[in-house]
Amino acid sequence: MTPKEVLESTTPQVRSVIDQVLQIEKAQKHIQNLSANRTIEASIAEEILRVIKREIS
Amino acid sequence: MRLLRIEIENFRQFSGKHELELGGNADKNKNVIVIHGENGSGKTTLLNAFKWCFYGQTDFDSKNEKLLNERTVASTPAGGKIEMSVTVDFEHDGMRHTAKRVSIFKKGQDSGYEAVGGSNLELTWVDASGSFRKSDNSETHMRQILPERLQGYFFFNGERIEKLAHVNAADQIQSAIKNLMGLEIVERASQHLGGQVLSRLRKDLKETSSADLQDVIDQENVLSEAVAKTKQDIQVVDRNISEYKEELNAVNKALESNAEVSGLQRERSALEKEIVDLKSRLAGIERARRDYLSANACLAFSESMVSTSTAILDEKRKKGELPFKVKEQFIDDLLAQAKCICDRGLEAGGAPFQAVKAFKSSTTSADVENAFIETSSTLLNMAKGRLELFSRLKEFQRDQTSTAALVTQKQGRIDVISQQIGNRDAEDISKLEAKRGEISERKDAAVSKKGSLQSQLETRERELADKKQEREKLSLANDKGEVARKRLELAEEVKRVIDNLYVALAEQVRSKLSKKVDDTFKAIMRKPYWAEISKDYTLQIFKEVGGEKQIVYEKSTGESQITSLSFVGSIVSIARERAAEQGSENFKGGIFPIVMDSPFGALDDDYRDKIADYIPALAEQVIVMVSGSQWKGAVAAKVASRAAKQYTLYALTPADQAERNEVHEYTEIREASHV
Fold first, then answer.
1. H/E stretch holding B37
2. Binning pLDDT at 50, 70 and 90, where does residue A28 land?
3. Is the pLDDT reported for residue B185 higher than 70?
4. How far from the centroid of its chain's Cα atoms is residue B312's Cα?
5. How far apart are CA B23 and CA B8, in angstroms?
């Protein structure tokens, strides 16, 4: 499957969440060894959780 | 990013301030800056000046020690302060940026000096409204503009990039694809979703659940953590394997450069490469054998069914029941025409009519007839297929046996060579060989550990999927946790799609890049070879021998250099195309310059000529550093016409400066117009 087909195969809701999640990750992409930085990891997870909770409230 | 200017102050052999204009010319046909200089004149220093400015790192053997210019130190009075700096002006996202890294030193009482604090980077820019802006976090900001892990693809020594064309550079190639195309953010998204996010959402669901469901969620969390931990362990082992490979390369090179064992080591390296390929071929045969078996294994047990069915059909055929000689449609036509073939009239209800109509009961419908023909043909094919199955399985076995025998044979020769090298009296050789043995053992142990971890991972992932199904069944009956359940399901679906997206993006980029590398490679190579980036991200060269595709192991350094240059140029070009694409904001490439030292080093005249044609097209902006011997003939003619500016680095030795009593070497930069 092409990336476009992968995205088209899912629902608009999932696509929207994916887009928001990737934006969150993109903001931290300059950090080289992210897994070594637990605070940033936790804050990214928190932001993703907020996106999911906003979608289903 | 487009480089506009670099200013170097008291950095290595550059005493005082020196400036080079790099990119003022917007003419796309003049996108090359040429910097001339003989060995030791400062070409590599200039390359490293960019790295030091942007990231505070260099790749000199002495790392960041001794970066300060000695001549400046000598002319500074004791206690005086010396500033060493590199400033790079560049354009990014349509705005002019300035990156300036400074280190301050204090001269001691003797000729020594010490650093006053570390180096500091200041990043400023003029924004779209024309306002001057200064970054609060310059180091991070700079890495956002050009990630440090990518710098090796934009600032490199042309003579050293040939290693990209080695089998064990697969990690580097995969990482370049991942980083340059923005795939890393997709990978990280999957890790975060699969780790903390799902764990928290399961916890939320657990709080509203029955005891049974809570128990299943607990088990799911434990398994999920185990999966994440195993993946991390695999990454660590992967890194170790890469490091061992690099160490082995270094030892191999040291042995190759020792005249006494050079030939033996080269032969051993070539044999090892062949074994890697043979093992990959063995894996390929095994994959093909499994695929073939999963599609055809049933034929092995079909003999009795085929013979019984064939016998039944034969009997029907013999009795004339199938296929029947008179077709149903033929009887219908006679009855409709009311006339028999003997010319007798067939009046409806009459005796002749009834007699002809009676034939219909002994005919078969077209569907049954077709089914008979198809079944007969299928049975025939199955019988043939069964014979072919055994013949193919024998072929697979023959291939596997002969390939495995080749591996054993080559391994045997490697053992003999290793013994010969290890038995040498020269201490440096035996030490290197012993070290090589130790590293090889550690690498083999790591490879074996990786295999075991991968198998563990598969088991845990299967168990996790089972547990998820169990939880889904139980949580459907849990009304109170409706919202928590839906959130968890959404996060799981998002993770699933992101994982698929990663696979699709990586494959799309790999196959596009492979084609581009091949196009470039073929345009430069004079031999009928072609280049491919395989599914495991190795960049290899192939040739055709007797209609068969074969890997080219014995590449010259020049050929390896061309392969690697094709790769770098292609990846920069794809990143540039991707940056211009609509709708790819999250997986965006970018525009990058290429700064390379000695791109023509190991090439003969013909290849230099071809590379010279290709270099201006490598990137939007190309800065090349060349020695006098590299800058001649076709190279000079072709690149000079594309050069926006040319500079020459003059290394001034004490002998050149005898009348001034100069005791230090230093470099001066002058604008030039070499043709």
1. strand B32-37
2. confident
3. yes
4. 58
5. 16
Q: What is the pLDDT of residue B247?
A: 84
Tokens 């204009």, residue?
B21
Whether A36 and chain B come into contact, CB under 8 Å, resolves to no
* Interface residues of chain B, partner chain A, Cβ below 8 Å: 140, 143-144, 147-149, 182, 184-186, 188-189, 191-193, 195-197, 200-201, 232, 483, 486-487, 490-491, 493-494, 497-498, 500-501, 504-505, 508, 586-587
Is B487 close to A42, i.e. CB distance below 8 A?
no
Provide the residue type at B300 as one letter: A
Residue B531 CA to residue B240 CA, distance in Å, equals 28
Return the SS3 of B221. Answer: helix
Q: How far apart are the first and last CA of chain B?
A: 28
Interchain proximity A32–B505, CB inside 8 Å? no
Pairing label, strands B95-107, B120-126? antiparallel
Q: Strand B120-126 and strand B548-551: pairing?
A: unpaired
Confidence (pLDDT) at B105: 93
Distance CA B119, CA B57 (A): 10
CA B251 to CA B442: how far, in whole Å? 14
Among B375, B363, B368, B371, smallest CA distance to B325 is for B363
Query: What is the spatial distance between Cα B483 and Cα B475, in angstroms, rounded to a whole number?
Result: 11
Residues of chain B with Cβ-Cβ distance to A26 below 8 Å are 182, 185, 586
Q: Distance (Å, rounded) from C-alpha B500 to C-alpha B491?
A: 14
pLDDT at B368 over 80: no
Q: Taking the CA atoms of B60, B66, B69 and B71 in sequence, report the sign of the dihedral they define.
A: negative
State how far residue B158 is from chain A, nearest Cα, in angstroms: 26
Residues of B whose CB is below 8 A from A56: 483, 486-487, 490
pTM over 0.80: no
Tally A–B CB contacts below 8 A.
101
CA B452 to CA B450: how far, in whole Å? Answer: 5
Q: Are strands B81-92 and B95-107 parallel, antiparallel or unpaired?
A: antiparallel
Query: Over chain B, what is the mean pLDDT?
Result: 86
Q: What percent of chain B has pLDDT over 90?
A: 36
Instruction: Please compute, for residue B391, the number of CA atoms within 13 A of its CA located in the half-sphere on the CB side.
Output: 6
Q: What is the ipTM of this complex?
A: 0.96
CB B121 within 8 A of CB B139: yes
Would residue B22 be called left, alpha or beta, if left means φ above 0 and alpha means ψ between -120 and 50 degrees? Answer: alpha
Q: Tell me the HSE value of B393 on the side-chain side, using a 13 A CA sphere.
A: 14
Confidence at B534, pLDDT banded by 50, 70, 90: confident
